[in-house]
Specification:
2 copies of one chain form a homodimer. In chain A, about 40% of the residues lie in helices and about 15% in strands. Chain A is built from 13 helices and 14 strands. In chain A, β13 and β14 form a beta hairpin. The N and C termini of chain A lie far apart (about 70 Å). Chains A and B meet through α1, α2, α3, α4 and α10 of A and α1, α2, α3, α4 and α9 of B. Chains A, B: Keywords: Aminotransferase, Pyridoxal phosphate, Transferase. Chains A, B: This is Alanine--glyoxylate aminotransferase family protein.
Chain lengths: ~375, ~375
């Protein structure tokens, strides 16, 4: 039947085995994964219903609760990158017409706006210049005005390097029956987070930043309150892949097949979480803080300034002002191609104005800072 | 501020480094990835906008066109497992109210029905007992009746082991302005596919079967006709993560950031595709066919029967009838725990009636067959 059709070789490439340059990834992510994590990914796969794999999923769930400091039973890894986990929070809880209030002070606030709209939300926003954060008063006023079903805030704005304080926000939300949704993509593992203490109902993150894993399996958690909203929906979740009612039957005791998990990434995530647990969460947070302070001092010592006020700076990601007369893109390219160091450029309001320097997970080490400063000195002619 | 909260160690586990049993995965997937592929995943990550990574994405695109036998410019890997790529086909092309006709002869046909409904489709179905396929006449009549915007067929029904012939279906579709959407999850790399010859407009697959990769980065392709439907949409795609207009700007020449790709999985996928290209597509198909015929003969030699008529059997996945009086689950469990061999059970109509045996990618070798038959003989007491 098909044997009469001849094979078209137009797109046939004869390639050599994979070889990639060895970069130090000090941009906004991905960061270099811990070597132990990469080694674990080179392990023969198990089936997604193998008892040995199900046990590994339980370990991931438990350790995600630990790093997020939550008791939420529904704490899992989504089979996609952080953006998929972000989408999962909205897809499951937004019903058409729900008022969703979003704090926008950077690129990822805007992404939440776009996503929420796609799920039929009546989106309201409050905004701040990129690099600033919202005060508790500003949040309180906005909640009073909009009485939203969901308030979404970005804990660690990857585009600006600012840390949004969250203490007491959850309490305010409870006054209005509002669910609190938080982006912890650039904070999980590197910045103190106490989800339950803060009354956070929905959170998502990624694997390749504070956790020091490779990207592709992304932490997701929802509180019992958020689960109740999901269970009361009148319409199916408009996203089969990320439907937490279906996924809960796979991650929970029923073990009903939903989709084939990215097995080897889960190996990596399990190892990354094991390493954080072995270090201890408090030590891990302190290491990130100590190394970023060394970075800030070192950058200042060569005449560079930070974009965000010190009090609100993230330990994981720093926005560094590009000096007058310097072409930030040219510098970043030189760092990459001449020194094998990746730093990020600015997005949106900060395009052309800052470099974004990440010190996350395995890369949060003094050696990373020293190597960057040495290279910057050469490139900037300091 | 946060220093007064003490860390809760309830969910802290102190784990040993990862160790997993070494299984031969002869179920419906995942299959064992090629050792070279796993080794490639243990390579330090690049940034998702690094020129070296963008070049690797180009290689993936080209080789996906080769294995699918298509010229579609929009041929990419989705950052999720096969189910995400499946969802991407519907999310991008279904607009609320569109008539979507789906051929249901197994579990994955049903999944398409569920998914399409979530995107607002007016879903119509034709159905067959599980294990059978639709004739061209049946398809033609259904097209005439429903005049759908999209016809979705499962080329390789993973739940039944049946291969749906597709020659001439695309021509019929063109008479009604219908887009042809095809599930090639269990066929890509292992079963002859000629997407362009067959007039297929949308297809998806996975990495962990015929391609011999690890799961998590999944092939997706759409024709120019399908792209036109996407471009003419009146509403945004109700799925940000899988929006092909946004993804096209990352995979295309603009290189605009969309999400952080699962870097190390792309390394693996590139290597898996490189190995298929080195073997040659025709050789790869022939190897799958030859080894499955050896499997069928071997199974028959120990008195077992196949569920699907020979003409429509897949070379990648075989459904084997469980003999009267045998508990299929007990046998599968013994194979797994005593012989380290995974086979799958039946789903839906075939639950308790068949085992599903995959010979895909790296696992399509005579040694896999020999090991399975030896173990089956012991377990069944033959």
């Amino acid at each position: 039947m098909t044997s009469t059709i001849s094979i078209n070789d137009n797109h046939l490439l004869k390639l050599a085995p994979l070889e990639v340059p060895n970069r130090l990834l000090l941009g906004p992510g991905p960061s270099n994964a811990h070597p132990t994590v990469l080694q674990a990914m080179n392990t023969t796969p198990l089936g997604h219903l193998d008892p040995a794999f199900l046990a590994l999923m339980d370990e991931i769930q438990s350790l995600l609760r630990y790093v997020w400091q939550t008791e939420n039973p529904h704490t899992i890894a989504v089979s996609g990158t952080g953006t998929a986990a972000m989408e999962a929070t909205l897809a499951n809880t937004v019903e058409p017409g729900d008022v969703v209030l979003i704090g926008v002070a950077g690129y990822f606030g805007n992404r939440l706006v776009d996503m929420a709209g796609r799920y039929g939300a009546d989106v309201r926003t409050i905004s701040k210049p990129w690099g600033q954060v919202f005060s508790l008063d500003e949040i309180s006023t906005a909640l009073e005005t909009h009485k939203p079903a969901i308030l979404a805030l970005v804990h660690a704005e990857t585009s600006t390097g600012a840390r949004q304080p969250l203490a007491e926000v959850g309490e305010l939300c409870r006054k209005y029956g509002t669910l609190l949704l938080v982006d912890t993509v650039t904070s999980l593992g590197g910045v103190p987070i106490f989800l339950d203490e803060w009354g956070v109902d929905l959170a998502y993150s990624c694997s390749q930043k504070g956790l020091g894993c490779s990207p592709g399996a992304s932490p997701f958690t929802m509180s019992t309150r958020a689960m109740e909203k999901l269970q009361k929906r009148e319409t199916k979740v408009a996203n089969w892949y990320l439907d937490m009612l279906l996924l809960g039957k796979y991650w929970g005791s029923e073990r009903i097949y939903h989709h084939t998990a990215p097995i080897n990434l889960y190996y990596g995530l399990r190892e990354a979480l094991r390493l954080v647990a072995a270090e201890g969460l408090a030590n891990c947070w302190q290491r990130h803080q100590k190394n970023v302070e060394y970075l800030w001092e070192s950058l200042e010592s060569i005449g560079l300034k930070m974009h965000v006020e010190k009090e609100y700076r993230l330990p994981t990601l720093t926005t560094v002002c590009i000096p007058e007369g310097v072409d930030g893109k040219v510098v970043a390219r030189q760092l990459l191609l001449e020194h094998n160091i990746e730093v990020g450029g600015g997005l949106g309001e900060l395009a052309g104005k800052v470099w974004r320097v990440g010190l996350m997970g395995f890369n949060s080490r003094p050696e990373s800072v020293d190597r960057l400063i040495e290279a910057l000195k050469q490139v900037l002619g300091k």
